[in-house]
Prior knowledge:
The protein is an alpha+beta fold. 51% of the residues lie in helices and 9% in strands. The strands form 6 sheets. A 4-stranded mixed sheet has the order 14-13-15-16, sandwiched between helices. Helix 23 links the parallel strand 13 and strand 14 (577-582). It is globular, with a radius of gyration of 26 Å. The termini are far apart.
Amino acid sequence: MERESFEDEEVAELLNKNFISIKVDREERPDVDHIYMTVCQALTGHGGWPLTIFMNPEKEPFFAGTYFPKQDRMGMSGLMTLLAKVNDAWRNNREALYYSGARIIQAINEGTEAMEDELSPGLIHEAFADYKRSFDSTYGGFGAAPKFPTPHNLYFLLRYWHRTGEEFALEMVEKTLESMYKGGMYDHIGFGFSRYSTDKKWLVPHFEKMLYDNALLAIAYLEAYQATKKEMYANVASQIFTYVLRDMTSPEGGFYSAEDADSEGIEGKFYVWTQDEIRKVLGDADGEKFCRLYDITDKGNFEGHSIPNLINTGLSPNEENAKSTGLSPQNDAEKGFIERCRARLFDYREKRIHPYKDDKILTAWNGLMIAAMAMGGRVLRDERYSTAAEKASDFIFSKLVRNDGRLMARYRQGETAFPAYVDDYAFLIWGLIELYDTTYKPQYLTRALKLNDDLLKLFWDDKNGGLFIYGSDSEQLITRPKEIYDGATPSGNSVATLNFLRLARLTGQHDLEDRAQQQFRSFGNDLERAPRGHSYFLSAFMFSQAQSREVVLVGNKDLQNAYGLLEVLREDFRPFTLSMLYSENNEELKKVAPFVENYKTVDDKATAYVCQNFACQSPVTDINTFREILSQ
Length: 632
């Protein structure tokens, strides 16, 4: 629609003569996008982008739709026709348009009125049953094409498996993660995931790469690695981080937003190959072998070209597929061959014209990548990732916090803009909690608590509970909505709820636990209607229902002697366990969590306290005993 209409001089003349045209970057203004998308869904029964809204000068919408061709086509009104009709109605029947706008606003506001309901623990099992029904057992994922990764669905299933022992929950996670990696949605040459798959096999992607997808997917692969100990998942997470650090990180440490699907005006052109190109780069013998492995054929699998993929070929957990190509993932020599070929093809591809990079730095998406990188440093024992997370955190606090302490939403080329939204606060707090869990530097807990206080002051609904999308100090729009649906990313309300629970139990500020319980009541009706659409919120609810553990490790002054116990703590997937690392000289941690002062070493040895349901077991100093207690 941009090329067809907005860059067309005939359309522009009509627009500029009769309208004030506003083009909204929905990543910079999610508040505007959410409100008017709700209008579109209410008026038409569906939504999507491009989003087309007509409104009066008071910002009240009276007409909405999505895509319109320039001219009438196949029974669809064209934009030129629509502009003429709206202009005629505005000049000759303006009162009707104002009346329509007022009715729409009234309906939208009535739809946001709170209806509290207690969450039933049975919803967790209902959601699992729903995932089971919609699971694609052949290709992984849920539902039909197009298929979106939605990693927080997998977070929920991993926690469900961990809590209930239901093996099929883990099977769904593994099948989905393996299938997404094997498909063309994954960039097997340069790493990183595209936005979504247009088909059920994960073969043909929409080639756009988003920072938030790669952050959330890295977390899913890291958690799967913790749960299964399968190196494949660790390798995929590490490759995602390689891509982000190489292509999506600013010199100052912030993370860029996205890379376009198009280059030279053609979607996917940067990413696809022909057999002749592969042979030219690798030579005939190696090229033939690589093409056989990655499904690169004369016919192609995408508009006469080939998207490298492993759907029906090797490097698969399926041994028969691996043997059929003569390439087994267990063979180090063959792994070396693949990596050599990949590196040469990557160098060749770098000479192509790259897709456009959206180099704005968004606080919310940076918060997600900070969380992922921090987890990567912890799970993969690789300081490069935790260092990158710390550097990005420092960038946010130096460039995206106003002099009065107000967090901001976007930075680009030296300019900071827009008061931060609920997602910015919630996702950054999540990142800071993960940074603390990796580094045990109290400054990250201190920052998380300060931001959480600000979040509650600016966004909390004192009347009905829940967090509004934009702050009380921001531009006030026609309505002030809340979001709980966990879509492409988890909602700010969902993430904030789990943050409340984790911060409450880490610091002893139990009023935050009360806030989480209010969240469950405030959004209970939403979850009752569609449990599966709220997977991250259900993960937070599961955390509140599970018998969570808090582990306090106490070491000597430099904490060196506690690292053995720390390694044991990090051996397995423990989604309901929180931990702190403390020594008596750690004054900042005592300010944040005063209760830690009561924990002492035993016989001057590193000591672990395992607490559950507000009661602690006897302290232990022996590593094997500690491992045994954790495994119970």
